[in-house]
Amino acid sequence: MDRGDAYFLRQGITVHNSTVVRERVVRALVVIQNTELSTLLGDAENPAHTEWQERSAKFRDKYDHGPGCLRFVRNSASGIVRILTAASEERDRDLLKDLFFVIKPGEKEQGDGEKAAGKKPRRQKEGVKLPPPEKIIRLRRTSGGFSIGPHPGAPDGRRHVEVRVGYAVRKGNSIKRYVPEDFRLDAAPISVESQNVNLLELVDNRLVFDTAPKDYSVAVSGFDPHRDLEIRLRHQEATDETAL
């Protein structure tokens, strides 16, 4: 197998989705036995019963938290594989010490934690103390999302801001492992409200905008409250060509 496979079985109907399990040599079979859940998934299936469509007329607005429930089932196999294959987060600094080491000239081999006889530890030179970075933009978490605005006391100036969002994962980069099935900033249930900004891009998990010199705000909401959200924000001075 050059890629994973996943099969979802409910009431005798099988939906094959090879994109939800990305790990190689993993084949998953998800059996839905709960009647209510099976009905929900059936309402999301296309007429050919080959895929789930959360925006279909039969499914949309019919269930409370329907899209989130559908995504949970779709990503269940991948989530279990991710948990079972997660590496330990604890770093073992002594794992290869018997294979890779350096003995300094004039020193003898010494055990772990021992100091060379007659030698005092070197004092580290004091580094140059730099002033703390200036706080320009304030990012705050809100109920079901986050908000962006100028930091109190920040100097006036137009800023070019790029934001990327993703649900936290056990292994890997949450932003790189984003999939549109989790959410899309340009589609419900995600809502983006802004004041005094020039919205340049809003697609999938990426938001780009230019701010006004002083007061501005961007509020994003509608994320799954049961999942941790990770946010990456970059900003720089806006150019004359892109600023408001």
What report would you give on this structure?
It is a single chain. The chain is α+β, with helices and mostly antiparallel strands and 244 residues long. It folds into two domains: 79 residues, no CATH class; 101 residues, Sandwich (Immunoglobulin-like). Helices cover 11% and strands 28% of the residues. The chain contains three helices and eleven strands, in the order βββαααββββββββ. The strands form three sheets. A four-stranded antiparallel sheet has the order 4-5-10-7, with no helix packed on it. Strands 8-9-6-11 form a four-stranded antiparallel sheet, with no helix packed on it. A three-stranded mixed sheet has the order 2-1-3, with helices on one face. A hairpin with a 2-residue loop joins strand 8 and strand 9. The protein is flat. About 3% of the residues have low confidence.
Low-confidence spans: pLDDT under 50, at least 5 residues?
Answer: 110-117
Distance between the termini: 52 Å
Class of the largest domain, according to the CATH hierarchy?
Answer: Mainly Beta
Number of helical segments?
A: 3
Largest sheet: 4 strands, antiparallel
Q: Can you count the beta strands?
A: 11
Mean pLDDT comes to 81
- The CATH topology of the largest domain is Immunoglobulin-like
How big a fraction of the residues is strand? 25-35%
Which structural class should the secondary elements be placed in?
alpha+beta
Question: Which helices and strands occur, and which strands form pairs?
Answer:
Blueprint lengths: L4 E6 L2 E4 L10 E6 L2 H10 L21 H9 L1 H9 L52 E6 L2 E6 L8 E9 L23 E5 L1 E7 L2 E6 L5 E5 L7 E9 L7
Parallel strand pairs: 1-3
Antiparallel strand pairs: 1-2, 4-5, 5-10, 6-9, 6-11, 7-10, 8-9
